[in-house]
Specification:
The chain is mainly alpha-helical. The protein has 5 helices and no strands. Helix 1 packs antiparallel against helix 2 and helix 1 packs parallel to helix 3. The radius of gyration is 17 Å and the shape is flat.
Length: about 120
């Protein structure tokens, strides 16, 4: 990992922790605020820890883009949780053959940037 990339990743990590400290739940309830702050901290620790040993620059860039997108979406919608896509898992093709493989490939390619690691962790 280059020095610039390392600096960018550590800056994102600090930004997330500052965001968690200042986070206020949209409901205004203190219990919800505490739960959401804990979720932000746990999610950051889990994902940064999981990706600690990445060496491929493209994968690192993809993780940085995902992190930035999740921060911006959380700030915009005031919801720290990732926004899921609403497609039924096998709703578009029969359960056999090439069409299923094509559909799975299209589903994987169409997944938003901010959900790439969500399925792996949860």
């Amino acid at each position: 990992m280059t020095t610039a990339t390392r600096r960018e990743v550590l800056g994102l990590y600090r930004r997330i922790f500052r965001l968690a400290r200042q986070w206020q739940a949209a409901s205004g309830q203190m219990e919800d605020t505490i739960k959401e702050q804990q979720y932000i901290l746990n999610e950051a620790r889990t994902l940064f820890g999981k990706n600690r040993d990445l060496t491929d620059p493209d994968l690192i860039k993809q993780c940085i883009d995902e992190c930035t997108a999740r921060i911006e979406i959380a700030l915009h919608y005031q919801i720290p949780y990732p926004r899921p896509i609403h497609l039924p898992p096998m709703g578009l093709t029969p359960l056999h053959g090439r069409r299923l493989q094509r559909q799975e490939k299209l589903r994987k390619l169409s997944k938003p940037v901010y959900l790439k690691s969500h399925d792996e962790v949860s």
